[in-house]
Amino acid sequence: MIKVLLVEDEPKLAQFIKKGFQQEGMDVEVAADGLEGKRLAYMHKYEVIILDVNLPHINGFELCTLIRKKQPDVPIMMLTALDSIDDKTSGFDSGADDYLVKPFEFKELLMRVRSLTKRIQHFQHVAKIDILKIADLEMDRDAKIVTRNGKKIDLTHREYTLLEYLLLNKGKVLSKIDISEKVWDIDFDTGTNVIEVYINYLRKKIDKDFTPKLLHTVVGMGYVLKED
Question: Above pLDDT 90, what percent of the chain?
Fold first, then answer.
């Protein structure tokens, strides 16, 4: 049974989502504000956490950051009326795995939640490799530390997850669709430039002050992490 935490301050919407999930065999707990959401997230283990953004006491972006520090692997979805690219970027920077804009179709919400749970199960079954490395770039997956030439590189959760996927597939050209399916959600809107934005964020941190350059754009095809 999938256990879901829903942090939503609109009672009618919260009950609508809870009833729909329960009909699909899910176990759902609801928090009406950020403080209660934080308390529940810290106390219990959930397969998926769904956060509104405009919450009393602690907003969804702040709450996502707090939860992510406590539970780095739990899938988190933002469910909000905020729909600008800056809002989405803030959501992913805070550690969200997916971002769905209100109003929404319940079937899409359900599909995305199932996709998130399947993806985390997939990664849990990937053979455990403690250290990922290319050239002098190194990722310690247990300590969640990335270094290049011995210098620590600070990454957001989203940048870390993107780099991890690139390292696991080093030498392979990855399309935006590949990245959206494995790093974001399978139905992430590839019509936006969010992936390009995060590739640029990552490139500035791991390549700008170092040689050789490792993160390359293959025009018309995607991105690849490799040594020239």
Answer: 64
67 with 76: CB under 8 angstroms?
yes
> 76 pairs with which residues across the strands?
49
- pLDDT digits 0-9 by tens, 10-67: 999 999 999 999 999 999 999 999 999 999 999 998 999 999 999 999 999 999 999 9
Nearest Cα residue to 166 out of 126, 223, 228: 223
Cα separation of 32 and 120, whole Å?
Answer: 26
Query: Chain-centre distance of CA 106, in angstroms?
Result: 21
AA identity, residue 179: I
Give me the residues paired with residue 48 across strands: 4
Judge contact between 1 and 27, C-beta under 8 A: yes
Write out the E strands in the chain.
3-7, 27-31, 48-51, 76-80, 98-101, 131-134, 137-140, 145-148, 151-153, 215-218, 222-225
Look at 9-23, 175-189, 199-213 and tell me which has the smallest mean pLDDT. Answer: 175-189
- Is the pLDDT at 186 greater than 60? The verdict is no
Non-local CB neighbours of 191 within 8 Å, separated by 6+ positions: none
Output the CA torsion 85→91→97→98 (10° steps).
-50
Residue 85 — pLDDT band, cuts 50, 70, 90?
confident
Interacting residues of 132 by C-beta distance below 8 A, sequence separation 6+: 138, 139, 141, 164, 167, 168
